[in-house]
Amino acid sequence: MTAEIAILNKLAVALAADSAVTISTGAREEKIFDSADKLFELSRNDPIGIMIYNGMEFAEVPFQTIINKFRAECDAFRTVENAASRFLHYLNSTGVGAPDRVKHNQIEQVVTPLLKKFEERRQQAMIEYFQNIPSDAVADQINMSILAISNNILSNFKQAIDRLPDANFVGDGPLEFDDFTVNAIRRLVAENLGMPTDSEEQLVELSKSYLTKGSLSSSLTGTVITGFGSGEIFPTLISYEIDGMACNRLKYMKTNAVDIDRQGKRAAVIPFAQKEMVERFLYGIDVSIQNDISEFCVNSVNTLTESLLSRVQFDDPSAKQELEREAQSAEQAFIEGLTQKSFQAIRSAQQAEIEDMVEFMPKPELAKMAEALVNLTSIKRKVSRGFETVGGPIDVAVISQSEGFIWVKRKHYFDPELNARYFQRAQSKQNRLQETAHATASDIGPSSGPTDGQRDAEASIEQQAGPPR
Q1: What's the pTM?
Q2: I need a labelling partner for 294 at 20 to 30 A (CA). Which of 40, 214, 394, 442 fits?
Q3: Distance separating alpha carbons of residues 362 and 12, to the nearest angstrom
């Protein structure tokens, strides 16, 4: 896990990300390192950045490697949305080229939790059935009852899955299941369950349906892409959560789409991953507190109603029933008003107050605010029980039209004074870029300032060298 923040106004975008990364084996958290890179420049031609959270690899390729290769190969982007779409297609091509073992593992990460949950429900129902089985039951009746139990649980799971939102997949048209995916699902069904043959094919179909839905696995990776395309005056932010490949197509869900504009939203503060402390600071309330308050109100109102009704004497039983119905209706209206109106009103008022100030913040203040909000979550994790899943150095960058992608704070794992050859290689790369830029400029004609190639070269060496020590 991690904590990341994006702050946007009409002038710039400030991004901040911590450096903690948790190494897990299955459901167990084994080790935490505080030196991971999660914030990157996405394009050398346009001021666009990217942050990642949760998963640090895709198809067993580190995201840092994928992003570096994408940055080296991509062209200019007119909009951030165009850059985000191109990056998803680039990930898709990476996933298509993965070995079959990797593709199978990605299917397993999504399907296996569903199968295990189904088997737990089935085993529990079977235990209850055999505890109350009639003494005169014969084998055929028992087998029919076992099959009926499985089918009933399957029906309940199917109804729950049908209510889930559909996932998005790179490419056109609906997802078409190939033999590889279907066979992988059948193997997983056989490995995780011991159920009647008549139900196995139904569970395969259930798993196929689940793959197409937007319920993502714990191995998902969040991507936040933001900045300015060449045709944009104000910044845009688009974020996705991606969850591996299904039938050779990348599965993803869009989680945010913010377009700063004079006619619409003029500022935004958006937390990612572990965001409860940021929401509590910004809005005065977070989801956890909302749930606690809602649960307290539900229990208190119900207890109060029962206490009052128990003290009232009714001559007519129908009058009591009518009052109970009215009380239940009033309880429901109160809880709905609390959860759907009051909480939202509190958040909206606090959010508007914050965004009114963010709209006019200069770039240095945006960077300071972004760093402070990530640090707030880091401190909370430090003084709380459990692993410090947010921590380490905080990387901060500001993206603007005038300066492009600028590192405000950036960690390094090496000492620049001990790596003179690294900077010689970076200088050689800069010289090659400048030669290309000069050649392009001579073809176009005289210019009154540095060319795009020169600016890209300068940005490249600055980004690789980092801030002075």
Answers
A1: 0.82
A2: 214
A3: 8
